[in-house]
Amino acid sequence: MRGVIVDKAIYAAGKRRDIEGDISDAFDLAREDGECFLWIGLFEPDEDEFELVKDELNLHPLAAEDAVSAHQRPKMERYDDTLFVVLKTLAYVDKTSDIEVGEIMVFLGRDFVVTVRHGAGNPLGPVRRRLEDNPELLGHGATAVLYAVCDEVVDRYGVVAHEVEVDIIGLERAVFDPNARDVTADIYSLKREVLEFRSAEDPLVPVLQEIVKGRVAECGSTREYFRDVLDHLLRVDGQVDAHNELLNSVLTAHLALLGKRQNEDMRKISAWAAIIAVPTAIAGIYGMNFDHMPELHWTFGYPLVIAVMAVVCVLLFRRLRKSGWL
């Protein structure tokens, strides 16, 4: 369990008390001194490793199964006296412009919090330190941890939304650059990332709304804090919708410009074919070598035909260039 438990501590009156030895014994001693709560942070535990925590805190087997297997949709469920919240974490990868998705599961009881993190994104160390530097907020108890985790996750959503916006601006410039390559695959790839972004943040909106509306008794003292998180999340939700619509417009414009460029190429090919057709037709006529063709025996026949070819080709070239075909 040493590598699985990232951190563990007991908090009383907004102050941290490190745990040495058995977690259960330390927690029982802390309870005797007054109001406190236990916060255990886990990173990708397997079933056997999580079994110890599940039995100690009497967590529901279904929630424990979700915490171990991961790949859950953002949600909030109640199991007896324990609140189970699933959050999707997002991390932007600069090198590939991909969005990595992870998960944080939060078990919230009256006097304990268990956070289970899957994926490399959104480590909770900074969240714990921020709470420990704010005893007033930490004094709200275990619900303060849930707020701080939600706040950190939603703040990361805002950062990722900004990075996606930068990528969209880059695609827009590439689309309207006359010498740009075909970026259809890049547009589809970014659109797929945006849809994945939406599937992570959109289901979290009703979860926070339930808390803000006062339907979660455990979070009664921190409703104002959650209202601020919800405001940020709704702003991000609007940005994601706007990004999706903008990518649709970028894709439509790109396909239209590709069609226009293809039409321009076809017109140029047709124009040059028309020009080449003139000398080809004349040469074909005089290449038939009939005996009764007076021009074949005329001294100025050859230069005259060449001159006619040149004049007609030049006139056609100027006419087609003027009309925009060349």
How far apart are the first and last residues' alpha carbons, in Å? 73 Å
- Rounded average pLDDT: 85
State the helical fraction: 55-70%
Number of helices: 10
> Strands across the major sheet, in which order?
2-1-3-7-6-5-4
Using only CA atoms, what is the Rg?
35 Å
Largest sheet: 7 strands, mixed
Structural class: alpha+beta
Shape: rod-shaped
Question: Residue ranges: pLDDT <50 for 5 or more in a row?
Answer: none
Which oligomeric state applies?
single chain
Strand content: 15-25%
How many beta-strand elements? 7
* SSE pattern: EEHEHHEEEEHHHHHHH
Protein model, in words:
By secondary structure, the protein is of the alpha+beta class. The chain has a seven-stranded mixed β-sheet, with helices on both faces. It has ten helices and seven strands. The chain starts with a strand and ends with a helix. Helix 4 (125-132) packs across helix 6, helix 7 runs antiparallel to helix 9 (223-286) and helix 8 (204-212) packs antiparallel against helix 9 (223-286). Strand 1 (5-12) and strand 2 (15-18) form a beta hairpin. It has helices at residues 23-33, 47-57, 61-69, 125-132, 135-138, 142-175, 184-201, 204-212, 223-286, 301-322, and strands spanning 5-12, 15-18, 37-43, 75-79, 82-93, 98-108, 112-118.
